[in-house]
């Protein structure tokens, strides 16, 4: 039997301070961007750094840690799944977005005071 899995693991730097939203029932969600970079050689033998931006979503009690310790520039490892969704923008146009829904994460880099 074939088994298919939706799992992603990324290491990168946070692009902006997380946006935290608290719902009426007390649940929280954190949204932020994560930059991952790869270096590769170009045609002249020099190196090019390519940066990819990922939309990151964290739900539940993990948001408390995000809120306290994660900020722009922080290096982080995230593990989760890729999710696609659509929404209507303010002009009532349908938009699509791909997000990484985090199941676990680890703070990397030097400890901060």
Structural notes for this entry:
There is one protein chain. The protein is mainly β. It has one domain: Beta Barrel (OB fold (Dihydrolipoamide Acetyltransferase, E2P)), CATH 2.40.50.140. Helices cover 7% and strands 58% of the residues. The chain contains one helix and six strands; from the N terminus they run ββββαββ. The protein has a five-stranded mixed barrel. β2 (19-22) and β3 (28-41) form a beta hairpin. The chain is globular, with a radius of gyration of 17 Å. The mean pLDDT is 93.
Q: Which strand order spans the largest sheet, edge to edge or round the barrel? A: 1-3-4-6-5
Low-confidence stretches: none
The tally of beta strands, per DSSP, is 6
Question: Radius of gyration in whole Å, from Cα?
Answer: 17 Å
Shape: globular
State the gist of this model.
With 113 residues, the protein is mainly beta. It is built from one helix and six strands, in the order ββββαββ.
Set down the secondary structure blueprint.
Blueprint (H helix, E strand, L loop, with lengths): L7 E7 L4 E4 L5 E14 L5 E13 L2 H8 L5 E14 L5 E14 L6
Parallel strand pairs: 4-6
Antiparallel strand pairs: 1-3, 1-5, 2-3, 3-4, 5-6
């Amino acid at each position: 039997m074939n088994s298919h899995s939706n799992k992603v693991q990324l290491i990168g730097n946070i692009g902006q301070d997380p946006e935290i939203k608290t719902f009426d029932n007390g649940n929280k969600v954190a949204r932020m961007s994560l930059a991952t970079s790869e270096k590769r050689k170009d045609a002249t033998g020099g190196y090019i750094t390519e940066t990819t931006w990922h939309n990151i979503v964290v739900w539940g009690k993990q948001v408390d840690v995000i809120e306290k310790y994660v900020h722009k520039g922080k290096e982080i490892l995230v593990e989760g799944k890729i999710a696609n969704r659509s929404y209507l923008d303010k002009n009532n146009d349908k938009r699509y977005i791909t997000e990484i829904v985090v199941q676990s994460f680890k703070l990397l880099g030097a400890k901060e005071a």
